């Protein structure tokens, strides 16, 4: 999955130059991804997205504190 996300991000940055300015460091995607083979309901997906957003914010704050 990481390979696909990486290749797609590179193509998007090449095609849309404004993206590379908005997402400095060329980080477009969050680290995780969700896969379901038995079917998640909408509420479970919403919980996962909120959890992922929280983790991303925590990672960003940690990186800013390092600098």
Q: Estimate the mean pLDDT confidence.
A: 77
What is the helix content?
Answer: 55-70%
Coarse shape: globular
List low-pLDDT spans: none
Whole-Å distance between the termini?
29 Å
β-strand percent reads: under 5%
> What's the helix count?
3
The total of beta strands comes to 0
Rg, alpha carbons: 14 Å
**Element-level helix/strand string:** HHH
Helix/strand-derived category reads mainly alpha
Largest sheet: none
Task: Identify the notable features of this structure and list them briefly.
single chain, 67 residues, 67% helix
Secondary-structure map with pairings?
Layout: H1 2-15, H2 17-22, H3 42-66
Structure in words:
This protein is mostly helical and 67 residues long. 67% of the residues lie in helices and 0% in strands. The chain contains 3 helices and no strands. The longest helix is centred in the last third of the chain and has 25 residues, at 42-66. The chain is globular and about 35 Å long. The mean pLDDT is 77.
What's the gist of this structure?
The protein has 67 residues and is mainly α.
């Amino acid at each position: 999955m990481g390979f696909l996300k990486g290749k797609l991000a590179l193509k998007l940055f090449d095609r849309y130059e404004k993206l590379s300015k908005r997402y400095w460091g060329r980080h477009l995607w969050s680290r995780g991804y969700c896969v379901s083979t038995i079917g998640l309901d909408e509420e479970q997906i919403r919980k996962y997205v909120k959890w992922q957003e929280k983790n991303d914010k925590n990672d960003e704050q940690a990186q800013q504190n390092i600098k």
